[in-house]
Each structure stands twice: as structure tokens, then as C-alpha cells.
Amino acid sequence: MRNIRIIIEYDGTNYNGWQIQKNGPSIQEEIQKALKKITGEDINIIGAGRTDAGVHARGQTANFVTKSKIPADKFAWALNSVLNEDIVIKESEEVPLSFHSRYDAKSKLYSYTIYRGLFPPAIMRHYVYHVRFGKHMDMDKLRKAADYFIGTHDFKGFMASGSKVKNTVRTIYNIKIEEELEYIKMFYHGNGFLYNMVRIITGTILYASIGKIDINQIPDIFITGDRDMAGITVPPHGLCLEKVYYD
Amino acid sequence: MRNIRIIIEYDGTNYNGWQIQKNGPSIQEEIQKALKKITGEDINIIGAGRTDAGVHARGQTANFVTKSKIPADKFAWALNSVLNEDIVIKESEEVPLSFHSRYDAKSKLYSYTIYRGLFPPAIMRHYVYHVRFGKHMDMDKLRKAADYFIGTHDFKGFMASGSKVKNTVRTIYNIKIEEELEYIKMFYHGNGFLYNMVRIITGTILYASIGKIDINQIPDIFITGDRDMAGITVPPHGLCLEKVYYD
Fold first, then answer.
1. Which of A29, A34, A222, B16 could form a disulfide bond with B21, CB atoms 3.0-4.6 angstroms apart?
2. Domain ranges of chain B
3. Parallel, antiparallel or unpaired: strands B46-47 and B2-10
4. A11 touching B (Cβ < 8 Å)
């Protein structure tokens, strides 16, 4: 038995997310079907992050155990030959049998892309969130709001209500903000993210940038853990899992 | 009668290019149909650049003459309300009746985006050209090759064979090259471009970067005008008309 780690890029537009669902296609299912085709085995793959419907990934990481004799680095080639164009295996390599892509992940990098033009974009519209209040955004406020999220905090107020996670303390190491033309790209690097956390933080930062949330009240949300004080959950299609880091 | 100038963004993936064709949809036709819907008039629009099938635009510019009483700046709103998501009018304004979007264009900015990862990209695959020789590319050579094209040259050797244009002298003011992860984006700003010129120059620069064309022989192509000495015509989907400049 060998344990194979793969790095996956996918366009999540037409999928119900990473995880196998009863209704609708999932990335996990597509890859497992491809593995069945090339190995004949029924393989369960473990993804580092369970991305939601419509969310993309440039660096999702997963692992699976197989009896197949295919050389580890050739799995990428073999899988890509049977997968459709929405899903691309960027790398494959053998890792110790003890490796678990989710439990062993040390940190993750997500990006969220906003388009602030007056009208929605035609190009790349499946990868960016068009904000209708773009011209009212104050980039200084946006950056100041983002700074509040860096560090170790109780992010309970920035988790989708209904989640059952008990420990809601996470650390965000860094938030990098890039501007290019009418696009704003925010990179979040942290040791872990609660359900919808990146999307709610982004919604909060956006609301802070237009004065709809008072920047100085962001620390209160950490204290109260009150989801209703935070901003909207921005839509999934602006989100991309860029990279998963391991030791 | 008023003359209206519009700036257009489009995803050219599913179109036979800008210009009305007998077979297949065109951007021009879609906009003219939208104009018919909102004004009732049969309007012929003039585009600054006749982009090919599959080519995108973020800043195509066009103009048309109309009797409609719609305020000039409201044409964008009205057109966007009837156009499909592939085409977005970013701006509309009234210009003098003498204005002609093609003849009056002083310069144009095109971008060409390359992806040099081992496997094709899943995300943004309709907007980038995947080169299979990515790991053999030498960025120093690429930049040096690009430098040869800046300035005023006879670009006859970099024009699709069969074109009937007589004056093949053009000026490229600047070529800017941006690198981000596995993406390379090249911006070409020039006073005008011959048919397929950006795509052939890009193909030549790419071939130079892997030593398939000797950089020092690029000036010879200007002298001989021999299309066969230049590189391949890279595919249309990496190309985007970013902006058209006027006085």
C-alpha cells in the first residue's frame, strides 16, 4: 500500500463543492471516478479543505491509499488523461502512510477577488465577486479593517451560524491586499478557517470600507462572538483555496 | 442625430469575433441587436479593433449614430439590461459627429497571457494560453526578445500571410511583462497592429525564450519581412484588447 498526495486545481463553478453529495457533482467524486478508471480500485480520497459549491482551488491538497503500481509522479498524468478540463492534478507524489492531508495541514492560503467596476465584469465573472458599491469603497478603511483580523482571535462571530465546531480560536498570519485596475484580491493565510470564515471576514471588511460597519467595533465582534454584528457572507465564486502548507 | 461612444468588455470564448459573420455569433451583432431592442433603430456600430474569434476585450471601443433620445450615459445601463453576460458596456458618452472609433484611434493596448505550468490550468483556461514548454523558458531571453520589437519597424514578417495591407510599418511604444506564479502577462502598446501581429510576435518571443529562434536573428525578420522566420501564431484565447487610446 502506498499513500499518494496530489495537488489539485479546479474551477468549482459547476460543482456542489469538494465533498461527495447526494445531489449534484463534486470534485471528490470526479477524482474518485478517475482513480477507479486508472486503478480499478474504489478509492476514498481525503481533501485538506472542504470547499463549498462554486469555490475554486489552485492548490487543494488530497491524499489516498492505493495498491496500484503506477509510479507516484505519474498519477497526475494518468488522472489528467481521464478528468475533464475543470479539474487538473498539478502534482502527485508518494508520502508516508501516516500522512493525512487534513489533519497534517499546518496552514492554508485562500484568496478572495472583488471587482469594483460599475457593471459586472464579462471576463472572469466566474472568479470574482462584483460589488455594486465599488465607487464608495475607501481603500484605507479596507486595509485598516483587514488589520484587525490578523493574529489569534476567537472567530466565533465570523463562522456560519449553525456550525458545531467548539474551538473557534484561529490565527491569521497575514492578509495581503492587491489592487489591479478594478480588481481587489485579498489573500488570507491562517492556521485554519471556520465554516464560511473567509467569506464573512471579507464581507465585514467590505462593509467597513463603505462605513456600513464601524471599523472600531470589529474587536467587539471577537468579544461577543455575535455573527449578526459582522458583515455579509460574500458569494462563493470569488473564493479560491490557493495553497495548503505542511511541515 | 447624436454620435455615441461605448467602451465594451467581452468574453470572446463563444463568439466568431467582433465583426458580423455569416456563420456564428459576433460581438458586433449582439450589440446591434441590443440597440435595436432599446431604440427600435437598425444601427451599424463601428469598432476600433476587429478582434478575432476567441479573442477577449476589456476596453474595445465603438461608436454609433442614433436618433434615440436616451441620455448618452444611460446607453450603458440600457444595453446591459438586454445583453447577455458575455458582453458588458462599461461606459457610454456622446462624442462629436465627426468621431470615428477606428480612424481616430491613436494607439491600442493588448495583453497576451501565458500559463507555463506543467499541466493546462483549470481556472481561467479560456483566458490563458498553456505552453507545454514552460519549464524550458528563459525569462531573460524572453525579455531580450521582447525588447527587439519596441520601436518603429516594418512588421510585414509578423503579419498573417495573405493580408493585403500595404503599409506594414507600425510603432510599438512599450512591451510590459508581468510574472505572477505560473502566469506571464505581456502588454503591447502600439499605434496599430497588423492582422495577427500580437499573436505572431508573442509566438516569436516564446520561441526565442526556449532557443527555438535565435534572438539575434529577430532584426533579420524586419529586414526580410519573411513570415516563415517568425514564430507560431499563438492561439486567440490568450489575447485581450485592453484599451483604445484617443486624443
1. B16
2. 2-95, 107-245
3. unpaired
4. yes
Q: A128 and B123 in contact (C-beta within 8 Å)?
A: no
pLDDT in tens, B54-94: 999 999 999 999 999 999 999 999 999 999 999 999 999 99
**Neighboring chain B residues of A119 at a CB cutoff of 8 Å:** 76, 80, 88-90
Whole-number Cα distances in Å, B205 to A158, B145, B196, B232:
48, 6, 14, 10
pLDDT along chain A (247 residues), means of 10: 97 96 93 98 96 96 97 98 98 98 98 96 95 95 97 96 90 96 95 96 98 95 94 97 97
Separation between Cα atoms, residue A38 and residue A36, nearest integer Å: 6
Q: Which residues pair with A240 in a beta bridge?
A: A56, A111
Prediction ipTM score: 0.88
- State pTM to two decimals: 0.92
| Chain B: closest CA distance from residue A102 (Å) | 23
Instruction: Determine the topology of domain B107-245 in CATH.
Output: Alpha-Beta Plaits (3.30.70)
CA nearest to A89 within chain B: B119
Q: Which helix (H) or strand (E) holds A224?
A: helix A218-224
Instruction: Report pLDDT for B21.
Output: 87
Is A39 in a helix, a strand, or coil?
helix
Question: C-alpha angle with apex A6: A88 to A196, nearest 5 degrees?
Answer: 80
Asked if A122 and B80 come within 8 Å (Cβ–Cβ), the reply is no
What DSSP element (H or E) covers B129? strand B129-130
Cell 474595445 belongs to B60
Residues contacting residue B210 through CB under 8 Å, at least 6 positions apart: B133, B136, B137, B138, B141
What is the least distance, in Å, from the CA of A119 to any CA of chain B? 6
Among all chains, which residue has been given the C-alpha cell 490557493? A242
Asked whether this chain's domains B2-95 and B107-245 adopt the same fold, the reply is yes
Nearest by CB to residue B127, choosing from A10, A86, A124, is A124
Chain CA centroid to CA A153, Å? 19
Measure Cα distances from A82 to A8, A9, A34, B192 in Å. Answer: 14, 15, 6, 43
Predicted local distance difference test score (pLDDT) of residue B207: 97
State the first-to-last Cα distance of chain B, in angstroms, to the nearest integer: 23
- Say which residue the cell 488589520 belongs to: A147
How would CATH label the architecture of B2-95?
2-Layer Sandwich (3.30)
For the packed helices A139-147 and A197-209, what is the interaxial angle rounded to 10 degrees?
140
Residues with Cβ within 8 Å of B162's Cβ and at least 6 positions away in sequence, in order, are none
Answer whether B125 sits within 8 Å of A89, measured CB to CB: no
* Ranges under pLDDT 50 in chain B: none
Distance of CA B45 to the CA centre of its chain: 18
Residue type at B170 in one-letter notation: R
